[in-house]
User: Which sequence fits this backbone?
């Protein structure tokens, strides 16, 4: 089996590095400055209908986000139209944001999606497109719904050093996140293992708020705790995108991730994940 990773960004590059050498190919809109990784340049925003011939048989991991505007995902459509031949399995990185605001309720994969933001609606449209495309061709389709990703370089240290405020703990709802190394483990399992098609929630199993996460990072990095402001104050100070993340609350149920996908998070303890990230950053 060969493996193709479409989108070699923060997580995709790490997945590509974890795949068997000589049988892994990355597709990215720009070259990677890493001679150890085999990456082919592919810009899905260009009008190019030439077939994309790939080594067979292969499994495809798709990590590329939709464009920032519109109601669907023309990038995914462009790739699917060019695959020749199609893969035996597609793994799609989606977002847990498709569930919308659940008021902090426990949320498993049987909960109907109810996205409240344009970006989450585009992701749900991409999920539906991919499921239809795979079903017509008899291709296995796994959708991984991913929460906030943290890890080296993604701890918000610059904002903490600048003394930026966070939402008060009293106004903050439960959150979900996953360390990038655990996300990579889930992607590799979905690409390698004999697991059924379907939707899988990914998370470390913790539900601490974003405020608690920022406090923990500050403490472990030796920084002052961030100042806290009320939700009313946040509405005048935070960006619309940041507010949209804070307006939704849910607790992801990851039973299926652990029992079917077979991945137990290495960083189930949030402090361990932050310490490992800080160590790699230093």
Assistant:
């Amino acid at each position: 089996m060969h493996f193709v990773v479409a989108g070699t960004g923060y997580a995709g590059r790490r997945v590509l590095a974890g795949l068997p050498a000589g049988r892994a190919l990355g597709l990215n809109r720009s070259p990677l400055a890493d001679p150890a990784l085999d990456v082919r340049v592919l810009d899905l925003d260009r009008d190019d209908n030439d077939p994309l011939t790939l080594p067979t048989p292969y499994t495809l991991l798709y990590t590329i986000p939709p464009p920032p505007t519109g109601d669907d995902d023309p990038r995914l459509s462009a790739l699917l139209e060019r695959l020749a031949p199609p893969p035996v399995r597609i793994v799609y990185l989606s977002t847990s944001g498709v569930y919308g605001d659940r008021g902090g309720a426990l949320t498993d994969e049987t909960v109907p999606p109810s996205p409240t933001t344009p970006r989450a609606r585009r992701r749900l449209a991409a999920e539906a497109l991919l499921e239809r495309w795979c079903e017509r061709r008899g291709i296995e389709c796994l959708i991984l719904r991913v929460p906030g990703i943290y890890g080296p370089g993604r701890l918000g240290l610059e904002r903490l050093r600048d003394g930026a405020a966070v939402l008060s703990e009293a106004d903050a709802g439960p959150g979900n996140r996953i360390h990038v190394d655990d996300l990579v483990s889930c992607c590799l399992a979905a690409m390698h293992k004999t697991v059924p098609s379907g939707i899988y929630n990914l998370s470390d199993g913790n539900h601490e708020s974003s405020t608690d996460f920022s406090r923990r990072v500050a403490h472990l990095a030796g920084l002052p705790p961030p100042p806290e402001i009320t939700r009313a104050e946040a509405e005048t100070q935070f960006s619309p995108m940041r507010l949209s993340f804070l307006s939704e609350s849910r607790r992801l149920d990851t039973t299926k991730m652990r029992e079917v996908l077979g991945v137990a998070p290495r960083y189930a303890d949030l402090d361990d994940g932050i310490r490992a990230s800080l160590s790699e950053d230093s």
Observations:
- The first helix runs from residue 12 to 18.
